[in-house]
Amino acid sequence: MTNIKYTKEHETIRAEGDIITIGITDFAKDALGDLVFIQLPEKGAKYKQGQDFAVVESVKIASEIYTPIAGEIVEVNTALNDNVDLLKEPMDNGGWIAKIKVDNAAELSNLLTESQYQDYLKSIA
Amino acid sequence: MLKSTALNQNHKNHGAKMVPFAGYEMPIQYKAGIIEEHKTVRSTCGIFDVSHMGQVMFEGAEAAKFLSRITPSDFTALEPLTSKYTVMTNEHGGIVDDLIITKLTAEKFFVVINAGCAEKDIEWMKSKMPSSVKFTHLNTRALLAVQGVDAEKILQTLVAANLSQLGYMKITETTTKAGDAIFITRSGYTGEDGFEISIENSKAPEFFEKLIAAGAKPTGLGCRDSLRLEMGYPLYGHDIDDHTIPVEAGLSWVMSKDNSNFIGAEKVLAQKAAGATRKRIGMVINEKIVAREGAEIYKNGNKVGVITSGGFSPTLNLPIAMGYVTKEFGGEGEELKILVRGKEYSATVKKFPLVQPRTKK
Lengths: 125, 361
Hints:
The complex is a heterodimer of chains A (about 120) and B (about 350).
Chain A: E1 2-6, E2 11-16, E3 19-24, H1 26-32, E4 35-39, E5 46-47, E6 52-58, E7 62-66, E8 71-76, H2 79-82, E9 98-102, H3 114-124
Antiparallel strand pairs in A: 1-2, 2-3, 3-9, 4-6, 5-8, 6-7, 8-9
Chain B: H1 8-13, E1 17-21, E2 24-29, H2 34-43, E3 46-49, E4 54-59, H3 63-70, E5 82-89, E6 95-105, E7 108-113, H4 118-128, E8 134-137, E9 141-147, H5 151-156, E10 171-175, E11 181-185, E12 194-200, H6 204-213, E13 217-218, H7 221-231, H8 265-274, E14 278-285, E15 296-299, E16 302-313, E17 318-326, E18 335-340, E19 343-349
Parallel strand pairs in B: 3-13
Antiparallel strand pairs in B: 1-2, 3-9, 4-7, 4-8, 5-6, 6-7, 9-12, 10-11, 11-12, 14-17, 14-19, 15-16, 15-18, 16-17, 18-19
């Protein structure tokens, strides 16, 4: 059963069992503007919750992408190295950064639901 | 409370992403995005609203002498209807601002100053101005920059003057085809052929829309920065500031040999004679990383400088940067290391302009 969650750092998380796929929200895609490069993590690397595991470089700024739930990188979207614009696509069409095998799937419930994320966006508008 | 230029609503109508800049709400980009807008200026024509920049007028028999005192240039000898890029220096020889001064007549000068220091500049200039010089702040005027290989063709459809006769860094006082008074200088901050048009605020929105209808694409401050970076033009407050002495910034070319009497001359001329201890350089980053302002420059494990402006060049499709290094370094082709987020990346020194300029000869 897939489950879509969000973070206040504007990441989209699709959870399938204990594997999460991480992308960025539409808000982030719009806010970042033109993308230039991405620094991807290494497969096998382990990250704690809140640690940055990737950096998206847009024309004006470098934005860190934070680990939503602690775990190990099991897959990396290396296609982004040749075409960083793919990150702006929907998740199913190449718009993802990496997949993490989380240490504790129960922590998924700590992430925001779609309506909680929308409320958060309204609060920072 | 942010200020607005006369074109604020026009920008919003064209889908601009507005951001605060120098106290104004300005378009950083429109729907096309920074990279696309940059490429438009390098291939056809873009139009920038630069009305946030200050426009002032100095008049009087002593105006030329005054301007030759607050800058190291010579405005007495300058031909009428000619613009000159220069800097104002303080008592320590530091740069107060970089600016363009245009001699309309022997006794009338039109000056454009940076938005970020307009107030500071006006206070400075007024404090140094003899009482016989008349100062006017042209704060009811907008300023538009039309830049690109098609700029002349597009602008010509809307103005009376024959633009093919207007040389680089020359000005003409003319009218729009609708009869509104404007001045046009053939100048810009992009390295392309282009014009800056000063027009009354009340007439600016209509003129802006006519230029767009004639083929100029609206382009924002985001690409203005990447365009000037490719050329190696300094940005005040980043690449030059009130501690920068003109020689180290590579700006001694704005100084007149006949002027040794300007404010800060002692310090500036001493640096000119002895040579500067550091120099401003350009570089291309050799890895997929953008090195930005503040990133440290290393050679053989020692810190030798800092980046003052950095970004991505859509024309070269590479990250580029501008910075200062101590004078022993920064030779053409030298490999340097840049520290970004704790890791070192390779960069190669390359002389500016990094892209071929196409300003009219």
